[in-house]
Design brief:
By secondary structure, the chain is α+β, with helices and mostly antiparallel strands. The protein is built from 4 helices and 4 strands. Strand 1, helix 1 and strand 2 form a beta-alpha-beta unit.
Length: 135
C-alpha cells in the first residue's frame, strides 16, 4: 500500500502512553516529517493488518518509513534517528540483539494500560496539529 507521506506512525489511539509519545514526536519533529494514524481508524486497521499485525490487539506501534514497515524497537530507534539531534544517540541500542530490545519493548507494551491508563476514545488532535494526522 502506498501512503501519501514518507514517514507514517501507526499508534494505539486509546493508550495514554502512546498518545504522549505522539505528542513528544510532534514537539521534537521540527521538520514536520512524521504523520500519524490511529490503529483504531479504518485506514489504520487496514495498514496494520497488511503489516501482519492484529489491529484488535495492538502490541506495537508501526512506522511505515519510505515503504518499509518497522515495529517495536526497530521503529523506536528509527524514529529517534529521524528526529535528529541528540535523539540520534539512541542508535547505540542497535548494538544490542533485537530479541533483547524487543523483549524490553514488549514488557512495557503489555503493561502500558495498567501503568499509564487508557482512554475510551482515540486521541483528538488540536487544530494546530490536525494536518499531521491521516485518519
Amino acid at each position: 500500500m502506498t501512503l501519501p507521506h514518507d514517514h507514517v506512525l501507526l499508534f494505539d489511539g486509546v493508550c495514554n502512553f502512546c498518545a504522549s509519545f505522539v505528542q513528544f514526536i510532534i514537539r521534537h519533529d521540527k521538520a514536520g516529517i512524521f504523520r500519524f494514524l490511529s490503529i483504531q481508524s479504518d485506514l489504520g486497521r487496514e495498514i496494520y493488518r497488511a503489516a501482519g499485525l492484529d489491529p484488535d490487539d495492538p502490541q506495537t506501534f508501526a512506522l511505515i518509513s519510505k515503504g518499509q514497515t518497522l515495529i517495536r524497537s526497530d521503529a523506536a530507534i528509527e524514529i529517534a534517528w529521524l528526529l535528529g539531534g541528540i535523539w540520534r544517540l539512541f542508535v547505540v541500542f542497535k548494538a544490542l540483539p533485537r530479541g533483547l530490545r524487543d523483549w524490553v519493548y514488549s514488557q512495557v507494551a503489555r503493561r502500558r494500560y495498567k501503568w499509564f491508563g487508557k482512554q475510551d476514545s482515540c486521541l483528538i488532535p488540536s487544530e494546530d496539529i490536525r494536518s499531521r494526522f491521516l485518519g
